[in-house]
Specification:
The structure holds 2 protein chains of 2 kinds. Chain A is α/β, with parallel strands linked by helices. Chain A contains 13 helices and 11 strands. Chain B is mainly beta. The chains are: A alpha/beta, B mainly beta.
Chain lengths: 395, 141
């Protein structure tokens, strides 16, 4: 039985650039901005970093850890490029936590960056997919549309139920100074938007954004001497589950959720020692790349029963003042989704929420916060749970 | 569904594993790969059985190409759709009677009429001298 990571690593500082159309910045600038904000937040110098994991997806390969070392001028430091589809950012965090928990690093940097808008595509660049209209890959909107039609058939969910997710997340994001789309939307606007892959319209899809985020991970005893000595967050668990990248050909794949999320979540709750996670999780940042995805995530994470997820959102239980606030930041939907950065942005948000210094809407009385980062066709999923400072072991 | 004249259609990328399938489609025959050792069907084609791990037991067997729509996506806005295809059109994920799933388009059916669970049968669409694609038609009755 592995010992697990609970309380063996701490989040000492976080940073995040504004997400959006960042035509005036390149990827190294964005990454440096996020990392230096995290260094300042933690009260460390760049040279204090022992190792770096950097998440980035495009252009898939040929990047190396050099993207972080060059941006931060930390030549000679061990740096690794992490790529795990859209879960790259939270997987970078996982690697940094492992290095610290293993006692190999005192201070590890997890960061992620994406500069995607100047690649000139609408939606995600698909040049590597080599898609054939009949026997090829499935685009991101299409695969989640396959899930949406299944959920509508199985549970009677409607396009209005999906739209409720967009309305909630845009409402939350409208108050966040770093969010990409800081405006509210109505159900009618969501339903009236151009249909990109029925039943998903343009406002069912998250933003495609530029941005970067960073997290300084250290051992708890070191965090006690740094800037957040009284309110650093504990890493309670960090789990990764990778399932098939081709569910479309898997005859037992029901599209009513994603097995990778269920497995990562189950293991994360166990590793964190949460016995009643529905009651204990005080907020969740989940991967709402599409409105349907958030509803499926809420069920897969067992924040409520699977079929009840639409009602959970519709009835306000996922609102900032609800039972379990989901995407108080605005989520990918409104905050934006620079692929490799998103997982670290979730840790940024969860940490600041647990420290009661959220930039946007502050949730109340949260002791544990969950980050859920989903990649590919639900193929690679990372789940991390952080605890507020008073949830740690007393010394 | 119809194609837009003048835009080239991407052709299947043939390899040693899938060539028998596409050659059969060219002859308007529908075949599926089956493991002769454990009798299971597989898709997409491959050289080794992923269940019992047998090599050299994968064989091509005729299929009626019947099944039902497991899920679907409709494309109704140009610029979001594949440029060579006229909107609106449906992409269907079909579960065949043999238990394997295939992706294709619906022939002769408006996207609004596609439903999960709808019985369908394979049909062949000759697009030019050296390209035939398989599609699905609603099975009446």
């Amino acid at each position: 039985m592995p010992q697990g990571i609970r309380d063996r690593a701490a989040v000492a500082g976080v940073g995040c650039t504004p997400f959006g159309e960042r035509w005036d910045d390149n990827a190294p600038n964005l990454l440096a901005d996020a990392c230096f904000e995290a260094f300042d937040d933690a009260g460390i110098q760049p040279g204090d970093v022992d190792a770096i994991w950097v998440g980035s997806l495009y252009p898939f390969t040929g990047l190396s850890g050099g993207i972080a070392v060059d941006a931060l001028k930390l030549f000679g430091k061990p740096a690794t490029h992490v790529e795990n589809f859209c879960a790259s950012g939270l997987d970078a965090f996982r690697n940094a936590c492992y290095a610290v928990a293993a006692g190999i690093c005192d201070v590890a940097l997890a960061c992620g960056v994406e500069k995607i808008l100047d690649q000139g595509s609408a939606g995600l660049p698909t040049d590597i997919l080599g898609a054939h209209p009949v026997m090829g890959s499935v685009s991101a909107p299409a695969v989640f549309a396959l899930a949406a039609t299944r959920a509508m058939e199985a549970w009677g969910w409607t396009r209005e139920d999906l739209a409720a997710v967009a309305v909630k997340n845009h409402d939350n994001g409208s108050d966040h100074p770093k969010a990409h789309f800081r405006r509210q939307v109505s159900v009618d606007q969501v339903l009236g938007a151009p249909c990109i892959a029925y039943p998903l319209g343009r406002l069912d899809a998250c933003g495609v954004s530029d941005g970067a985020a960073a997290v300084v991970v250290t051992r708890p005893e070191i965090a006690r001497d740094l800037a957040h000595k009284d309110d650093f967050c504990w890493v309670k668990s960090v789990q990764l589950s990778v399932h098939t990248g081709w569910p479309v050909y898997k005859s037992d794949f029901d599209y009513l959720g994603f097995p990778a999320t269920r497995q990562a979540a189950r293991q994360a709750y166990e590793e964190a020692g949460l016995t009643d996670h529905r009651d204990q999780i005080g907020l969740a940042e989940v991967h709402d790349c599409f409105t349907i995805t958030e509803l499926l995530n809420i069920g897969d994470l067992d924040l409520c029963d699977q079929a009840d997820a639409a009602a959970f959102v519709r009835e306000g239980l996922a609102n900032v003042d609800g039972e379990t606030p989901v995407n108080a930041s605005g989520g990918l939907k409104s905050f934006g989704h620079p692929i490799g950065a998103t997982g670290c942005r979730m840790i940024y948000e969860v940490t600041r929420q647990l420290q009661e210094r959220a930039d946007g809407r502050q949730v109340k009385d949260a002791s544990f916060g969950l980050a859920h980062n989903l990649g590919g066709q639900g193929s690679a999923v990372a789940v991390a749970i952080l605890g507020a400072n008073d949830t740690g072991p007393t010394v | 569904m119809e194609y837009v004249p003048g835009i080239p259609i991407l052709k299947p990328s043939l390899d040693a594993d899938n060539r028998p399938f596409w050659e059969a489609v060219r002859r308007h025959e529908f075949v599926l790969q089956k493991c002769g050792s454990c009798d299971r069907y597989f898709q997409p084609p491959r050289p080794m059985c992923p269940e019992c791990r047998s090599m050299d037991t994968m064989e091509w067997v005729p299929s009626a190409g019947r099944g039902q729509v497991y899920s679907f996506v409709n494309f109704t806005t140009d610029r979001m759709a594949y440029p060579a295809m006229k909107i609106p059109y449906s992409v269907v994920l079909v579960e065949l009677e043999e238990g394997v799933r295939m992706i294709s388009n619906m022939l002769d059916l408006e996207p609004d009429d596609v439903q999960i669970g709808m019985p369908v049968e394979v049909a062949f669409d000759d697009l030019d001298e050296d390209l035939t694609l398989f599609k699905f038609k609603k099975l009446e009755g």
